[in-house]
């Protein structure tokens, strides 16, 4: 293993993580909800009556963050390396996988691990493992582009 | 809590979460792929994002564990009776493949819609379609 010291941002990443943890804590303590994005989005696809407003508010806030950061000139560059075809396939897999596996990086990886849920810990290990393997295949195996 | 205040406060939670994703670097797919490049040139930053987020959330979950209620008195429903089954592991495995292919997971992907990047919008449309398909085939799997 080689560490990429050039791109390593421990302080900012920790600050960002604490903000995410604060958001998840507020959502739990004040709203009584789990901040799991795939579940919040999934509930909008076939919404139950009276269960739509909070999901839309949360997602609107999430999208406003990048709009706000852009307006304030604080938005970092984002590089999307993948081709449109890769993105389409990846999107299908992420949508299908998180719906089938009942969670994503926020729901399982943050909230689930924080409450020491065995299901979420297993899910997180699994998606990090297949993610690592996929990146290895893409970048180092000679198979990927 | 008044309905409107509730909607605004949920919006602010989303906003805070989004700023966390931006500051932490998770908004950038190429940085996410750098984190998943554990077997190559590894950028460990996102472990700090997860670590920071888990530490604070752990405290919050501890606080609600005893009562089972949020501060507003809403029952917090957490179902821990479900087993670790093939469905969970298969779904999470497929999610990880998509995550590695693109560097996008659902939170940062939705947040990226605000950047106006058409590639992010393409990913989100495919993700919504994938979620919808999962809802359709669910019955067959159980």
Q: What attributes does this structure have?
A:
heterodimer, A: 145 residues, mainly alpha, 6 helices, 68% helix, globular, B: 142 residues
Could you explain the architecture of this structure?
- The complex is a heterodimer of chains A (145) and B (142).
- Chain A is mostly helical and 145 residues long.
- Chain A has helices at residues 10-31, 37-45, 53-71, 84-100, 105-114, 118-139; one strand at 2-3.
- Chain A has one domain (10-139).
- By secondary structure, chain B is mainly α.
- Chain B has one domain.
- Chain B is globular and about 45 Å long.
- The model of chain B has no long low-confidence stretch (mean pLDDT 92).
- At the A-B interface, strand 1, helix 1, helix 2, helix 3 and helix 4 of A face helix 1, helix 2, strand 1, helix 3 and helix 4 of B.
- Strand 1 of chain A pairs parallel with strand 1 of chain B.
Global Rg of chain B: 18 Å
The biggest beta sheet of chain A, please?
none
How many domains of chain A?
A: 1
* Helix content bin of chain B: over 70%
Considering residues with a beta carbon less than 8 A from a beta carbon on another chain, report the largest interface and each chain's count: A-B, 112 and 116 residues
Q: What is the residue-mean pLDDT of chain A, rounded to a whole number?
A: 94
Low-confidence stretches of chain B at least 5 residues in length (pLDDT < 50)?
none
